[in-house]
Design a protein that fits this description.
There is one protein chain. The chain contains 3 helices and 6 strands. With 156 residues, it is of the alpha+beta class. It is globular and about 60 Å long. It has a 6-stranded mixed sheet with strand order 1-2-3-4-5-6, covered by helices on one side. The N and C termini lie far apart (52 Å).
Length: 156
């Protein structure tokens, strides 16, 4: 349950930040059902709940394997982009977040990880994205008006 709340809230806040125009180099995109954040056209982040070994806790699909193997998911004309996962790790009870990281896998090899709960340091920059209201999901049912001729014949 928490994973959906965190994911949806993150996607919403990033989409508001992107739309504001105040964060150059930030783009949110959806690739075959996967929300991804593209930073400065060089880093693509997927947003996931992670296990203790910092692997995404989802069913391993071809898309997940391709992403973690640094296979390009964006069009060729986009250029070279590093794929990384931004996510969090819960405690054994699943009640508290114990780690928040960005991790880069290249197949079975972990290339690097950045602890997001660590202090930014003197040279680090922390960007705060202001919270906005959670999005209201659209209704799944649409009422389609029948053509005018059908309305006339049903009134007779």
């Amino acid at each position: 349950m928490w994973s959906s709340v965190i994911h949806d809230r993150t996607v919403h806040r990033l989409s508001v930040a992107e739309a504001s125009g105040d964060y150059p180099g930030l783009r949110l995109t959806k690739i075959r059902g996967l929300y991804a954040v593209i930073l400065k056209d060089s880093l693509m982040l997927k947003l996931k709940k992670l296990d203790v070994s910092l692997r995404s806790r989802n069913i391993r699909t071809g898309q997940t394997t391709a992403f973690n193997s640094q296979t390009a998911l964006l069009p060729e004309n986009f250029g070279v982009v590093t794929n990384a996962t931004s996510g969090y790790v819960l405690d054994p009870l699943g009640s508290e977040i114990v780690r928040v990281v960005v991790v880069c896998w290249d197949g079975p090899v972990k290339r690097w990880e950045v602890d997001l709960l660590d202090d930014a340091g003197e040279d680090g920059v922390i960007v705060t994205i202001p919270a906005g209201p959670a999005p209201v999901p659209p209704d799944r049912t649409r009422v389609i008006e029948p053509p005018a001729a059908s309305r006339e014949s049903s009134r007779e």
